[in-house]
Write a structure and sequence with these properties.
This protein is of the alpha/beta class. The protein has 5 domains: 88 residues, 2-Layer Sandwich (Alpha-Beta Plaits); 81 residues, DHBP synthase (Alpha-Beta Complex); 171 residues, DHBP synthase, CATH 3.90.870.10; 128 residues, Nucleotidyltransferase, domain 5 (2-Layer Sandwich), CATH 3.30.420; 185 residues, ATPase, nucleotide binding domain (Nucleotidyltransferase, domain 5), CATH 3.30.420.40. The chain contains 23 helices and 29 strands. The strands form 5 sheets. An 11-stranded mixed β-sheet has the order 7-6-14-8-9-13-10-12-11-15-16, with helices on both faces. Strand 6 and strand 7 form a beta hairpin. The longest helix is centred in the last third of the chain and has 27 residues.
Length: 751
């Protein structure tokens, strides 16, 4: 009988060159055995002693591929009469319903870019990849991760690629998307005169020519189509805004390298690291010089991204372009387009050049967005490069499906002790986005071998996510738990930081249905993962016109001043018109189409409008972001605080006085932020003391505001109060589903 040792490794170990790594490591250790992929991880069988097995696993941890992540492993002894004569990779196997990590998509590596210059069969080949880089989540259909389970299935390897794929010394050994000029996907293009081309270098020249001449290029990328134009060309940018129905929302810019980006932007070490990382997100960076006012009018930051596909690198390599608008290929709130026929129908007619390719995108993924705060990277939009990386918990989550909210929607599923958060979905009020949401839930269930045992949704009965949850529950009999919006916000932070005891949660956002059927959004909660108590909240203010007041922020300016019986500033009267102002007052007084809200988001809208910065939102959060970006960095003073609990009377009285004295908007905006931070901090101290709490969690879309969050953090640090906020999960409504699932796990399972 022989002693064999079976090693099971779970984590991000598929699609990152892990089996080839194990093969080569076994050769180094002179061990015989085998390795294979299964849906629940990588299995290694070694014909060796216990000591040799332990030395081997130690080296696995020390030398594993850079992108690989080992969550857990086990070693068990097998007694067998058979022995191995060598070490080999065996065919992938199915193994129950458990799953291992699936790699996010990885930016092209430097070695592959070098191969595009030197390997004869890959000279200028734009779909080059290896075990260290290339498409992963965007092309995978099912586990285990093999070529036959991806959209590369239809591309048969040529003899040269096959030999690399089977060569243990080659970097492309078992690289599933391996391809070259002879056997892989290819680009095609046609211009607005229907002239087409399949030659890659000719296509590159056409892209450069189109962008430099002021045209717009539609180009299929990794997770969907993108729209490109020259970032210096104002006319092109305005035309792109018209095409995308994107009046003011800032555009992201692709720069060839960090050195070029620094001509306009400040970049610190942490920001530099994430810009260059294999994830390649859009990073929000502070401007020191304006690139083009039409890119981000009124904003002091610009979303910067570096090339992550070979064609991006070649675009800059074969041109003198230094900044290209890089926007998702969609219109309004629709999801990014991924299907070729759909793109040709919608994008080709509005483009000067249409560039496509014949590798299908199975899973749609937008570019992720992050920002730097408090020596940390905070995710704003979680998609390409992050999805489907799980949030690892200490709790059992199996079978829980959390539906999320309505805007910036996402959903989450529970597998064992993991929470797998979907990619960015969007606003479910848009029909196409809702279909994308439903389709992606179905695909996650199939891909991750997920069968819902429990459902969790928001309280709001009109959210399409809630309606879908109820529909599924009624059809299948699967139990449904509905949880309060801001409790879910708070628990999302608790999940990320493994908090279980009662905490003080400060939840600030635009809206969420409360247990009293009012719209909440300025909340102080005492909560754990199962339940919460509403300790305090911002005052209820009239919301004249309901959802319309969230778009037309000037209505909230009238409402707040009416609530505190303060005069309307003359400049505001002239801009809005006394008739419209009086109509809003009448609606409030007579309760005509008027609701009530404690929303912090609506407070920002009111101040932004009264200050003359932004009267209405052309996109979600516009007024609040412009207010933040207008604020002076040098102004440290605040408005007086009201003696009444959480009253904004003194705040608005101070703003009106400043407006009458023609104080600059930058000063007013800064004083507002300073005052709000004072109010939140003072209330937090009071509630911590009164309720015997010691830890604070901060959540809700308002805490995307770096200025406000940093002000609060500084105050908590001085008092040595432990504070927590999400960085790996969006603090906006895209993180709600994680909190919902955390509440579900605490409710349904004895964790």
């Amino acid at each position: 009988m022989h002693n064999h040792y079976l090693i099971h490794i779970d984590g991000l170990v598929q699609g990152v060159g892990f089996r080839p790594f194990i093969y080569k490591l076994a050769q180094e250790h002179h061990l015989h055995g085998c390795v294979d992929n299964r849906n629940d991880g990588v299995y290694i069988e070694l014909d060796c002693s216990q000591k040799d097995a332990e030395l081997f696993i130690n080296d696995v941890f020390k030398k594993k591929p850079k992108i690989a992540y080992i969550h857990k492993y086990s070693i068990s002894l097998l007694r067998t009469s058979s022995s191995f004569s060598d070490f080999h990779i065996t065919a992938s196997k199915e193994h129950g319903s458990e799953i291992t990590r699936i790699s996010p998509d990885i930016a092209v590596c430097p070695d592959c870019l070098q191969d595009m210059e030197t390997q004869p069969h890959r000279i200028r080949y734009p779909f080059i990849n290896c075990t260290h880089c290339g498409p992963r989540f965007s092309i995978i259909k099912e586990l285990p991760y093999d070529r036959s389970q991806t959209t590369m299935e239809s591309f048969e390897m040529c003899q040269h690629c096959r030999s690399e794929y089977e060569n243990i010394t080659d970097r492309r050994f078992h690289a599933q998307p391996i391809a070259c000029n002879h056997c892989g996907p290819y680009y095609s293009c046609k211009n607005n005169t229907d002239t087409s081309s399949l030659d890659y270098f000719s296509i590159l020249q056409e892209i450069v020519k189109t962008v430099k001449s002021g045209g717009i290029v539609s180009m299929k990328g990794l997770g969907g189509y993108n729209l490109l134009c020259d970032a210096h060309n104002t006319e092109s940018i305005l035309r792109l805004r018209e095409i995308k129905q994107r009046e003011k929302k800032p555009f992201a810019i692709m720069f060839p390298d960090e050195k070029t980006a620094k001509k306009w932007l400040y970049i610190n070490k942490t920001e530099s690291d994430i810009l260059h990382s294999w994830r390649r997100p859009i990073v929000l960076l502070k401007e020191h010089t304006k690139l083009n006012c039409e890119l981000n009018q009124g904003f002091t930051t610009l979303g910067a991204i570096l090339p992550y596909l070979p064609i991006h690198f070649d675009l800059f390599k074969y041109s003198n372009l230094d900044a290209v608008v890089f926007s998702s290929g969609n219109f309004g709130d629709e999801p990014i387009i991924i299907e070729n026929y759909d793109a040709e129908k919608k994008l080709y007619p509005i483009s000067d050049l249409f560039v496509s390719h014949n590798r299908d995108i199975h899973n749609r993924v937008d570019d992720s967005i992050v920002q730097y705060i408090d020596n940390n990277i905070q995710i704003i939009r979680r998609s390409r490069g992050y999805t489907p990386e799980p949030i690892v918990t200490e709790n059992y989550t199996e079978g829980i499906l959390a539906f999320g909210a309505e805007k910036t929607a996402s959903f989450a599923i529970g597998k064992s002790k993991d929470i797998i958060l979907s990619q960015h979905i969007g606003d479910l009020e848009n029909m196409e986005t809702f279909e994308f949401y439903r389709e992606t839930i179905h695909r996650f269930c199939k891909l991750f071998r997920f069968n819902p045992r429990y459902l969790v949704s928001d309280l709001h009965p009109d959210y399409l996510s809630t309606r879908l949850a109820k529909e599924i529950s009624q059809k299948t009999g699967v139990p449904l738990l509905q949880v309060q919006h801001h409790h879910a916000h708070a628990v999302s932070v608790m999940v990320e930081h493994n908090l279980y005891e009662d905490v003080l949660a400060i939840c600030m956002d635009g809206s969420g249905l409360g247990t009293d059927n009012c719209s909440w959004g300025g909340e102080f909660l005492q909560c754990n993962r199962k339940e919460f108590i509403r300790l305090s909240h911002f005052p209820y203010i009239a919301l004249p016109g309901g959802d319309k007041a969230a778009k037309e922020g000037w209505r909230m300016g009238v409402s707040f001043l009416h609530h505190y019986d303060l005069p309307i500033p003359e400049t505001f009267k002239r801009t809005i018109g006394i008739e419209k102002i009086n109509t809003i007052k009448t609606m409030i007084n007579k309760h005509i189409n008027t609701y009530y809200t404690s929303s912090c988001g609506r407070l920002f809208d009111a101040v932004s409008a009264l200050s003359g910065i932004c009267y209405q939102n052309s996109f979600q959060g516009e007024a609040a972001v412009l207010l933040e970006h207008t604020a002076s960095d040098r102004e440290k003073s605040s408005y007086p605080l009201s003696t009444e609990e959480l009253s904004f009377h003194s705040l608005f009285k101070g703003i009106i006085t400043d407006l009458e004295q023609n104080i600059p908007q930058a000063i007013i905006a800064a004083k507002f932020h300073n005052t709000l931070a004072d109010i939140l901090f003072n209330k937090a101290l009071e509630l911590l003391r009164e309720n015997g709490l010691s830890k604070i969690v901060l959540s809700g879309g308002v805490f995307q505001n770096k200025r406000l969050l940093q002000l609060l953090i500084q105050k908590f640090k001085v008092k040595k109060i432990p504070y927590y906020y999400t960085s790996r999960i969006p603090c906006n409504d895209a993180g709600i589903s994680v909190g919902q699932l955390g509440i579900g796990a605490a409710t349904f399972y004895k964790n």
